[in-house]
Specification:
The protein is 8% helix and 51% strand. By secondary structure, the protein is mainly beta. It has one domain (6-112): Pnp Oxidase, Chain A. The chain is globular and about 35 Å long. The protein starts with 5 loop residues before the first strand and ends with a strand.
Length: 122
């Protein structure tokens, strides 16, 4: 999987309904990690999609399995990778946040197919 990071849309099923959550992802050892204020423990183990759009309107879709982590070290690592603070990492004081990890099965980059001035771009 090519390293992906930035804002991605997490597509999950919560309470039987599809939900899309924008999260800031970082690539960690081939996985996608993000800090979330939402408790997604009920979605742990679920097959999910993460969609990334770049400025050229290409779409990167990562399919994987969602895992939830309540380990303080994981949250501190995500914050450090996003540049929120420098080592040594303080023990996280954000008890309302968890780390979600998307363990990829597949990554696909699709070319753009949007309309621009009546012509197909791509």
């Amino acid at each position: 999987m090519a390293p992906l990071s930035g804002i991605g849309m997490l597509a999950i099923i919560e309470n039987g309904e599809p939900r899309f959550r924008p999260l800031e992802f970082v690539s960690v050892d081939g996985e996608l990690w993000a800090a979330s204020h939402a408790n997604l423990d009920n979605c742990d183990g679920q097959h999910v999609d993460v969609l990334f759009f770049n400025e050229g309107y290409d779409l990167a879709q990562v399919q994987g399995v969602l895992r939830c982590s309540h380990q303080v070290g994981d949250l501190d690592r995500v914050r450090a990778l996003r540049g929120e603070y420098n080592p040594p990492y303080p023990a996280s004081t954000h008890q309302d946040e968890i780390v979600i990890k998307v363990i990829p099965r597949d990554t696909e980059v699709l070319p753009a197919s949007h309309q621009k001035n009546g012509e197909k771009a791509g």
